[in-house]
Amino acid sequence: MILLNSDSSIISETLKLNQSSPVTRLDKVDISFEDHSGGQFHLYATKNVSGQKEIKLSAKFPAWKEISKEKDLMEIVEKEFEGFYCKTADEGFDVTISCKIDELSNEKIEKFSQLKQKIISLPLTRIFKEFKTDNREIIKPFTISFGNKDFYSVVPGENKDQIIILFGMNFVDQTDTILAKVFLQEFYDTRNNRMEDAPVVLYGKEPPKELSNLSKSSDNSSLNYLTLVLFPRHYATPQAQDHLLKTVPFLSDYIHYHLKCSKAYLHQRMRAKTGDFLKVLNRAKPENF
To answer: pTM score, two decimals?
Structure first.
């Protein structure tokens, strides 16, 4: 399996490529792009009010409307991007970060490329923070929406040390639904047969009972639901938390990506087999046919 990188390769490669050349090349950076989950980005060079040259990255996310209503989540964003965060975002975008060109370093480029990962993982970041301060009673469920109707929710478990992560995945194609069931069944079988320390994995068409506490609509017939139950052994250390923040929020992207890869591989094998059959048929033709 190919593990998808949570950092933006477009952002990091663009800045590193220009950084390896004369600094003046950074003056000409101006790219806009969109990812498959509805995020929109604009990376460009500009001058601030003091006339200093700087790099700016503006982004727009489907979930920002809900995020901006939560004061504690906004505090996490401002703290995470302290020294980068702009109080006022560019017009048409939700969040903007900036850095002076002459102060740009590999560490700061990494910070730019992690913008989406930090925003999308905010519910998990908050729940880890509350667990650390032992404020588990005040933890609220929260949902992050993606542009393709997919979403994930972080919900406190019935036991105080449990974290439940719910994914709603939209499969318009019936073939994708069947392949996803086979793919996710392997997660379930692996956990039960070979990796008992792995999170509990549940998958099905029926909305989990935890969704009843959320405002997220669960009556979409094209949605399939995946539930992960995390225990302290999965998030007890800072290293484990960092790994979860970089992987779990992107699980639906990971599944969609591998479904497309699986379908491409199946189609390739089918075309190859059809070509072999045609060769056999052509060889079987009589000479005077």
So the answer is: 0.81
